[in-house]
Amino acid sequence: MNMIAFDLGASSGKIYLGSFKDNMLNLKEIYRFQNSCIQMNGYLYWDIISIYANLEKGIRSCIQESSEPVVSMGLDTFSNDYGLVSKSGELLSCVHCYRDKRTQTHRQEIDRILSARERHFLTGNQIAPCNTLMHLAAMRLEDSGFMLDYADKLLFIPDLLTYFLTGCQISEYTIASVSEMFDFKTGSFHPRILDAYHIPDRLLPTVTMPGTVVGNLSNALCEEWNTDPFPVITVCEHDTASAFVSAPCEESSVIISSGTWSLVGIEMDGPVINETTCRYNLANEGGVPGRHRLMKSVMGLWILQEVQAYYNAIGMDISIPEMVQKAEAAKPYQYLIDPDDPIFFTPGNMPLHICKKCELLYNSAPSGVGELVRCVLESLAFKYRWAIEALKEATGMSLCDIHIVGGGSNNRLLNQLTADICHRTVYAGPENAAAMGNVIVQLIAHGQIKSIEEGRSLVKETCPAVVFYPREAEAEACEEQYKKFVELISK
Fold first, then answer.
1. Residue 26 reports pLDDT greater than 90
2. What is the average pLDDT score of the chain?
3. Rounded Cα gap, residues 87 and 108, in angstroms
4. What pLDDT does 251 receive?
5. What is the rounded CA–CA span in Å between residue 224 and residue 442?
6. 3-state secondary structure of 123
7. Which of 8, 128, 327, 404 could form a disulfide with 374 if both were Cys (CB 3.0 to 4.6 A apart)?
8. Would you call 239 a catalytic residue per the annotation?
9. Please, which residues have CB within 8 angstroms of residue 389's CB and are 6 or more apart in sequence?
């Protein structure tokens, strides 16, 4: 049987054709397109029209490529962003990017309505400027709040794209759970949050669990593509949740979904909300039933992507692998930064931001690409260890190895630094983890496999992990530098 998996990230969109035959899982990338936020008049937006047009092209290509009828498709994307739809089904406005400055502008006013602490204990979510709630609250505090009163429905990006394909409107659980508006106790949106920020509850469709058939492709699209109707299934629509599904790990493993963001987390039976999760700003996030996630969001390879974008913009074309190669030759532990410093959150001249921060901390700055990239990668690995220590403290669990999945699992230097600095064996891969998880949930929905464990066994056979062991020779230096890093970020 053949299935389509759409995986939209902050830097690219990928459409895969997944096949399951003779108890073997195969995933083939059929179509890819570039994706990035667009700055216009001081605001950041996604080109949702272009995203949808590319989605259509990808689906058509998969139908043409498939040797047998496609039986279903699933969509997963980054979280928090949404479109507002009228009663007639029209998209009412541009789709803002989660990095848009409007939430930072109104942060103090938003916190005065309900404190960050109160919101964390109500929702279990991290408090972050990217959260859906922050953007809706900012709309109320600006002159665009009227749109919330006029709109009929708010649809998160994967639900919006599903609506364009099927005409059906839902809020998928994993992506709703990270909006800072969700109540894990009731499994629905939290009335206290909605009332406080004047968000009409009619905007939010019924929460739907992963593995649910939403509806078939519209008749118009089936006719245009000369295909029989097939259903769209709610997979774990939050791409991090999908990536975690495919991580071939054991209990008590740490999973890092490494890409534009680095999401450092563990799987739990249910939410963990306490003083420690509040202090460390940890996030409770929904997953496949029985696989709740407790997470720490780290800025991730976004910083590296922005460094590359700056160099390319000034005519110094350089790839990420070339940057990492230069970092390997640079002297270790010269400069460390906190990757989650707000200065690194928005697009801009990232090398300048890093150098300014280092000047402030060290009275000197990285010289050249190698030192700059080494600074970023070492800092990320130290922040991973800090996040793991926070997860241990919040849960009392004894955490063992680390599984790195997603595009960042190809970064061998970061993988080795993570093993050395965290004193844990690192298993890297699969690279296309979100798409793998997407297909696994579709297979479970079709009754082809019985469980996530069975799906992970398929991933192990399909994509054997690359293993990185902590080097004993690095242990003393790593320990000394970690103490310096903790002191640095505590300031």
1. yes
2. 96
3. 34
4. 81
5. 25
6. helix
7. 327
8. yes
9. none
Report the alpha-carbon distance of residue 420 to residue 412 in Å, rounded: 12
Give me the sheet containing 95-96, strands edge to edge. Answer: 38-40, 43-46, 95-96
Q: Among residues 192, 208, 231, which one has the least CA distance to residue 155?
A: 208
Burial group, residue 315, by CB count within 10 angstroms (0-12, 13-18, 19+) = exposed
Sign of the torsion formed by the C-alpha atoms of 403, 408, 411 and 417: negative
Reported as a pLDDT band with limits 50, 70 and 90, residue 250 is confident
Could you tell me if 444 and 450 are in contact, meaning their C-beta atoms sit under 8 angstroms apart?
yes
Query: β-strand 70-77 against 43-46: which pairing, if any?
Result: unpaired
The β-bridge partners of 332 are none
Residue 65 token pair: 């490529």
Note whether 248 and 460 are within 8 A (CB).
yes
Query: What three-state secondary structure class fits 204?
Result: coil
User: What gap in Å lies between CA 293 and CA 125, rounded to an integer?
Assistant: 11
The residues with which 15 forms a beta bridge, in sequence order, are 6, 31
Separation in Å, CA 401 to CA 218, 280, 384, 419, 470:
45, 22, 13, 9, 11
Provide mean pLDDT across the span 159-167: 98
What crossing angle do the helices spanning 157-166 and 48-65 adopt, rounded to 10°?
A: 60
Encoded tokens for 70: 């496609």
Return the closest-CA partner of residue 432 out of 457, 407, 460: 407
Residue 122 has pLDDT above 90, yes or no: yes
Catalytic residue among 239, 338, 340, 420: 239
Q: Is 237 left (phi over 0), alpha (psi -120 to 50) or beta?
A: alpha
Domains of the chain (ranges; CATH) run 2-237 (3.30.420.40), 239-429+465-491 (3.30.420.40)
Helices 412-422, 475-490: crossing angle, 10 deg rounding:
90
Distances (CA, A) of 258 to 195, 255, 271, 368: 36, 9, 23, 25
Percent of the chain with pLDDT over 90: 97
Q: How far apart are CA 199 and CA 202, in angstroms?
A: 9
In 3D space, the residue among 281, 279, 289, 283 whose CA is nearest the CA of residue 266 turns out to be: 283
Q: Which token pair is 133? A: 């709630």
Query: CA triplet 430, 432, 433: central angle to 5 degrees?
Result: 65
State the Rg of the chain over Cα.
Answer: 22
Q: Are 92 and 151 contacting, i.e. CB atoms less than 8 angstroms apart?
A: yes
Structure tokens, 219: 């008749």
Element (H, E) at 75: strand 70-77
How confident is the model over 378-398, as pLDDT tens digits?
A: 999 999 999 999 999 999 999
Q: Is 159 helix (H, G, I), strand (E, B) or coil?
A: helix
